[in-house]
């Protein structure tokens, strides 16, 4: 097995386990067992568990963030925007993650949520330091679309937004099954994301 194959196997096993069980609850031994590699190979390719977590996240962030930033900058150039447009600008970058994995969008959002649930401060530091400009453009877009919101309002509402999105994506298969059986609706992942956008826009933009 080549070094590239070994590294790929570790990343593939780690992302699934991290998404399902969380960063704190997933041990390196569990990952190496799922990947069918030895523990030394994790140390060789990544150095530490924290570095492995960052590598798993950055596989998605490196594709998602530049695409999202382009969409946000196009939006910021418009004279007037609304919150629906702000959230809608993330759909194409998010669905672009299927280039990594078929379930890339769901896995990415679950991993992102785990970073907060598991209180992984170093991961938030990594994202802010590597993609701070994108986050700033997102904040600018929110403020342009809803200038009446205070900084505290923006913080809380985006926190609730993340929770809603993570739960929705973590339950995506069950929700799609219910939609099919109860309402005879065939909804793919993109359709599910577009379903939640009006709810997010209304929640973030609600009067304080």
From TrEMBL:
Keywords: DNA-binding. PROSITE patterns: HTH_TETR_1, HTH_TETR_2. Gene3D superfamilies: Tetracycline Repressor, domain 2. InterPro entries: DNA-bd_HTH_TetR-type_CS, Homeodomain-like_sf, HTH-type_TetR-like_transc_reg, HTH_TetR, PsrA_TetR_C, Tet_transcr_reg_TetR-rel_C_sf. Pfam families: TetR_C_30, TetR_N. Residues 27-46 bind DNA. Residues 4-64 form the HTH tetR-type domain. The keyword DNA-binding applies. One of its GO terms (molecular function) is DNA-binding transcription factor activity. This is TetR family transcriptional regulator. It comes from Zobellella taiwanensis. The lineage of its organism: Bacteria, Pseudomonadati, Pseudomonadota, Gammaproteobacteria, Aeromonadales.
